[in-house]
Amino acid sequence: MSLADAVLHGMPADGGLFVPVRKPVFTWPPPEGSTAEWAAPRLIGDLDPKLMRSVAREACDIPFPLVEVEPDRFVLELFHGPTHAFKDVGARFMAALVPQLADASNELVTILVATSGDTGGAVANAFLGRSGTRVVALFPLEGVSERQRRQMTTLGGNVGAVGVRGTFDDCQRMVKSCFADDALSARHGLTSANSINIARLLPQAIYYLDAARRFDEPVHFVVPSGNLGNLCAGLIAARGGMPHAGFTAAFNRNHGVANYLQGAPFAPASSVRTVSNAMDVGDPSNLERIRWLYDGDDEALRAHVRGVWITDDETVSTIEHVHRRSGYVMDPHTAVAYAAASRHDGVSAPVVVLATAHPAKFPDVVEDAIGEPVEIPRSIRDARGRKESMSVIAPDLGELRALLDGVSS
Predict the structure, then answer these.
(1) 8-state DSSP, 373
(2) In the chain, count of helices (H) and strands (E)?
(3) What is the pLDDT of residues 99-108, one digit of tens each?
(4) Which of 294, 228, 298 is nearest to 263 (CA)?
(5) Residues 207/78, Cβ–Cβ less than 8 Å
(6) How far apart are CA 66 and CA 72, in angstroms?
(7) Domains detected in the chain
(8) How many CA atoms, within 13 angstroms, populate the side-chain half-sphere of residue 230?
């Protein structure tokens, strides 16, 4: 299948995941200039390099500050896009690419996305007003913060928000089932904007490459991990030639993959609610892709990636203690990774913790921890003043099918 078809279909009908025929290769060091424009044609080699550079310019026109919070411990801030979450990068890349591919195929595209927190808002914002597209974003009704929810439910236009009375795993299961239904998928031109979609996933390697080139030595990346798309993107960069001193995958109490990385068999489980809600995933899709990157060699994977899991109490205390020591404020997901970074026995390289969301998106957790209010970005404030509109369904595939047919009519 061509990459364009893979992007527009999201995932195969057999329930698997698309991967590139050839793994990306990055000759190090990169040349002077834009990391995004250099990396994009190498990440997505099947499409016109000029188009890829143009898409990369549009998607990555946001800063990725690197903040040294403590000696040799850095935070890579990935929340300076329009919805203040790292997923703005992949969502904006995909939103710039999909309409051009859809124009070539003359299809109306429905982006069906499951979100455990930030994906839905990022995708909704990126595709808002894009001709030939519409968004249907599923989220666990009681599993996202109010501010995350409002980034999906207050946009209107070609964006529909769907609250599911269940978990993220329920949302993801229903989305996968829709893609497995050939008739439904064809009727609505379904594609996904989760990291299930290869065009959402691959661009996330860009900020790893951009961070790595700022150091004179390889660094150790610590990644807040849920559905494993962010970790997978970093490992794609690493396997393609980016120098690194290893990775730590940081988990909350949904830690089946942490156990696997420590040597146990992986066992899918029902997700458990935590204060780091976007990581509440019990059966992550991208584990398949990560194992593909390592040709199914679990020991080789474990040699590069350490698995650590953090309790809610440790998450909150990390927010409090880091703020008290340095004045730096982090969201709960970043705090999970920062706490995991403290367990780096034997790691002598600089440590880069990925900060995946603005702390203002989680006021109940962050403000309680630091004892003071967090400044709210304007776009989040604006969403608080807009009227919400959403559908609510049970975690039932029949209800979702009926809703999709209603959306299309």
Answers:
(1) P
(2) 19, 11
(3) 888 765 556 8
(4) 298
(5) yes
(6) 12
(7) 57-86+200-377 (3.40.50.1100)
(8) 31
Please give the chain's pLDDT, 409 residues, in tens.
788 888 887 777 777 888 888 899 999 999 999 999 999 999 988 889 999 999 999 999 999 999 999 999 999 999 999 999 999 999 999 999 988 887 655 568 899 998 877 888 999 999 999 888 899 999 999 888 888 899 999 999 999 999 999 998 899 899 989 988 889 988 888 888 878 788 889 999 999 999 999 999 999 999 999 999 999 999 999 999 999 999 999 999 999 999 999 999 999 999 899 999 889 999 998 999 999 999 999 999 999 999 999 999 999 999 999 999 999 999 999 999 999 998 876 778 999 999 999 999 899 999 999 999 999 999 888 888 899 999 999 999 999 999 998 865 4
CA atoms within 13 A on the CB side of 126: 34
Cβ contacts of 190 within 8 Å, gap of 6 or more: 9, 10, 110, 112, 178, 179, 184
Short-list 19, 20, 400, CA closest to 172: 400
pTM confidence score: 0.90
Do 360 and 375 touch, CB atoms closer than 8 A? yes
Q: Which of 367, 372, 261 is nearest to 309 (CA)?
A: 261
Q: Look up tokens 């070539």; give the residue.
A: 104
Token pair 């044609």: residue: 41
Cβ neighbors of 17 (< 8 A, separation 6 or more) are 11, 196, 198, 285, 286, 288, 289
Task: Report DSSP letters for 320-331, one per residue.
Answer: HHHHHHH-----
Are 292 and 341 in contact, with CB atoms under 8 Å apart? no
Q: How many CA atoms lie within 13 A of 252 on its CB side?
A: 23
Tokens of 74: 């850095």
Q: Rounded distance, CA 363 to CA 372, Å?
A: 10
Residue ranges of alpha helices (H) inside 269-331 are 287-293, 298-304, 312-326
Identify which of 130, 119, 105 has the alpha carbon closest to the alpha carbon of residue 189: 105
- Beta strands across the sheet bearing 73-77: 66-70, 73-77, 351-355, 220-224, 247-251, 305-309
